[in-house]
Amino acid sequence: MITAIANQKGGVAKTTSTLALGGLLAEEGSCLVIDLDPQGNLTTGLGIELAESQPTIYEVLTSETTAKEAIVPTPFDLSLLPATATLAQAENKLLTQPDRCFILKEKLKPLRRTFDYILIDCPPSMGVLTANALCAANALLIPVQCQVFALKGVEGLMKTVNQIKGELNPKLKVLGVLPTMAETNTLITQEVLKTLKHQLEGVTVFEPVPKSVKFPESNLAGKPIHRYANEWKLIQPYRQVIWEMRAM
Which has the closest alpha carbon to 18: 131, 178, 213, 134? Predict the structure, then answer.
């Protein structure tokens, strides 16, 4: 199963969610996480320092190496396809290709039998890299920060998703929306959750992930959240997402 974790807005916990889900999934099966963001936060968030000779997702997309050769292990039984800032150069190169939206899908085909789960951490844009992720994926998880202005971004993303489903990947399913950085006792969070459920009828709105300093601390420590702070309220929303993944 390949799941894209996407939202064109930055700062909504896409990378944090990829780390959390990947860490949990790696304890029950084989899991690969793909850093598709030129910022490389998923790579650094796993505490990985790349050697100069280490190929990355950039070399995979430009056919300089295979996906299998670019995978690096992590201390958490989690495999990583890393990224560096050079990935930003891939956008222009991919745009010249006639099959530009399907390149990642083709590169991942040899890995489908190797891993039970593949998670793709997308960049904060709806460019060709995110389009590649959505064309390669079976499912889409949309993290949304619990702020009012974040709702407009979800509407735009859903339009893009429907377009991709209609034209490029009819098998893509929306796994659900994951509210993040929630201050559950505040009026604003309650209003955001209510609006999401109203606007996205038929789409699962998961239990919100609470706002906590433990998340940036775990990223700094290079650990998935459950390895850093075993607090039920922080981990449970991600377990709910995994239950939904199993049911698809």
Answer: 178
